[in-house]
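Researcher: We plan to redesign the surface later, but first we want a full-length starting point. Tokens attached.
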């Protein structure tokens, strides 16, 4: 028996949510950098990511924290120190992140570039 549209939509809802989060600008790169380099403070993340705006980085970090993807560790020092790290939940993406790096290198890295001429 064929599924109606609402059943198909319900089945795709978790995937739609996951892809929506991952595809938001800067999210994958932000996750990748913390995954590779470990916990980072806001200023470090901003320098590592380059042209990301303060507003966008703040929005991404808040979104990822609310989703349980990033842990925000606050130290009440002067000035306060806030460090961001990945949660265990995100570590399930380890294989995906590594494979994306391999594909990116193959497609767009030195080996993947087409010779001129």
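Model: Full-length starting sequence:
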């Amino acid at each position: 028996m064929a599924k109606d549209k609402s059943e198909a939509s319900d089945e795709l809802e978790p995937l739609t949510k996951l892809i929506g989060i991952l595809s938001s600008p800067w999210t994958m790169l932000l996750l990748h950098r913390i995954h590779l380099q470990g916990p980072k403070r806001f200023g470090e993340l901003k320098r590592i990511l380059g042209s990301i705006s303060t507003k966008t980085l703040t929005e991404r970090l808040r979104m990822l924290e609310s989703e349980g993807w990033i842990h925000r560790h606050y130290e009440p020092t002067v000035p306060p120190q806030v460090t961001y790290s990945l949660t265990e939940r995100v570590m399930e993406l380890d294989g995906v992140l590594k494979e994306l790096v391999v594909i990116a290198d193959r497609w767009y890295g030195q080996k993947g570039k087409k010779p001129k001429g």
